[in-house]
Write the structure tokens for this entry.
Amino acid sequence: MLCLLSLNSTTDVQNPTRRKQSQQKRQISIPTEPLSLSLMPLTSPKWLQCPSLSFTIPTSLFQYPRNSSTFLCNYCFKNKEQTQSWNGLKVIRGKKLLKDLTTWGIGGVCNYFVEVFDQTQLLSAIRYCHVNSIPYIIIGKGSNCLFDDLGFDGCLILNRIEFLERIDPGVYRVGSGFRFNQLGVLSCNEGFTGLEFSGGVPGTVGGATYMNAGANGQETASTIESIDIVTTEGAFQTLHRVDLSFGYRSSPFQDMKDLAAITAVTFRLQGSGSARKRQQELLKRRRITQPLGERSAGSVFRNPSSLGVSAAELIDKTGLKGFSIGGAMVSHIHANFFVNIGGSTSQDMLNLIAFVKDKVDKKFGIELEEEVLYFHPYCNLMNKER
């Protein structure tokens, strides 16, 4: 784009007469209704001046925002914050950087951004996306995911369903957007065991359930009684744990085609006088063995099943601790944590993941499986393309 602008600027300086003529040709009437570029009048000039910029650019680089009477170039259109309303929901178009919403601090601009605070708002946002064929992704605290620097050409729905209800002693019904580690601290402080491992774990209750998060011999699924979901058809359902099959870092929701989102989870925990002490011990150990103060997404790879060895051990034995590509680095503290040491691009992180996988495969004949989810710019959660 800079080359195009530079060439046009040079041409105008060298040909003042041509510049005057081109300016006269640019005086066209702006339509009052949204108009596709493919339907622009054949007499329209090849160059227009963006209202937000002081120079002209090709019409092929312009967009015509809905509910606006002004053409904007692609750059300004992508970076101009516009507020819309979807069935009463405030939606921001452009400007919202994905890197500000993720623990890795990586990602470009998303086309639409909306926050939802209850299941009704969530369903409203999902329905709007379906009706208007807008791809969407739902995230919580932004851990365990990698967005592309090119952004996301769809709607990012930020889950802020953060309520907590005490139904009975040790029984908690919690919104899927509630911080998972906060629930663990709260339950242990109240004398209930089962979620000691959650201390220091980033992410939400919904994310922990979806991935069946776990550590130190504990996992999320073992503490769940029921799960509330909303389907792509807009139906609310309550599923009971006894009817669901969970596995290592896996849940039935990962393959549920009609799942739109998890909205709430009910946990049933057992009383324990040592839960708080146990959690403090695990958190102290985690602070020593994991880079909690750095920008990471948690474990990058799943531990190989039934091999009795962790992904971190395999990576460490290849001598890759501290190895970096661009701004992405294998942590010195924990080999299965990749950190953004400053300015990492999505391609840096993808290259590092691919490089580590290749090295481990060549040395041990084991192909590591990613635990972190990568969302490319045109992925579509409606079609489960992740």
About this structure: The mean pLDDT is 81. Residues 81-160+377-383 form a domain with the Uridine Diphospho-n-acetylenolpyruvylglucosamine Reductase; domain 2 fold (CATH 3.30.43.10). The chain is about 25% helix and 25% strand.
